[in-house]
What we know:
Layout: H1 10-20, E1 30-32, H2 36-39, H3 54-62, E2 66-71, H4 77-98, E3 101-103, H5 109-122, E4 126-130, H6 131-137, H7 142-149, E5 154-158, H8 167-182, E6 187-191, H9 195-201, H10 204-210, E7 214-218
Helix pairs in contact: 7-8, 9-10
The structure holds adenosine-5'-diphosphate and magnesium ion (MG).
Amino acid sequence: MTTENPIKSVGEIASEINAALPRGVMRVPITHRLTWDQILADIPPEYRDATPNAILSAAMVSTGASIMLHGKPGTGKTYQAYALLVADRRKRGVMLVEAGETVYVGLPLDSWCREKADALRSRDQVRIITEAGDIRANRYDHRWLAKVAEYRGTLVVDDIGFTKPTEWVTEAVYHLANERRAWRLRTIWTTNLTPEELRDAFSPAIASRLSGGAVVELTGRDRRVSS
Ligand SMILES: Nc1ncnc2c1ncn2[C@@H]1O[C@H](COP(=O)(O)OP(=O)(O)O)[C@@H](O)[C@H]1O
Ligand SMILES: [Mg+2]
């Protein structure tokens, strides 16, 4: 028979003491630390160790708001999107992992961890949405679309044109492209299509907005297929 987690850490014991103390009584200081697993729990494991590509990083520094990242399936486009998100989280989370935070209240450790990780996530400077998931799931939700359009950080719209775009997808992509461009908000579009194929799949008006900034191609083999 196994007992559930019988060993408590000093922090957990101090936390319990603090929780039991009446208000106004001096409390025990506790250093709480987050782990990278907690901070990156919402990132698919496949992309948690992603590191940014030098060409995309250079394009982020030197170009305007829009970047078209295209390449055949499996060349690492989604991986690059997550690399940006993971880098942003790691930068903002490093103090909470290494130094931690000293607290005096009797907040249970797991609540503290959850709150801190949620707070880090809510300030992400990178947001990834997909055509297959988010855009289709929020069909004709113009309020959702308006909120996405005004996101101030880097918006990645992943895998556009993976199949024939629906009317709503076309409308949403057009709106996002227009708004993000007008407000000079950084947007990375990723697709398996070439710029020419993109023109055929959507329309020349949309394609020119999507490919109007930097165009970065990822080449190489399909990394999903083992060599
Ligand atoms: N630079 C990289 N280093 C290591 N693994 C990578 C790299 N780029 C992609 N991968 C891996 O290759 C697979 C396909 O990458 P993904 O980004 O999903 O491709 P796609 O271009 O189709 O979006 C994933 O398992 C991903 O983790
Ligand atoms: Mg992908």
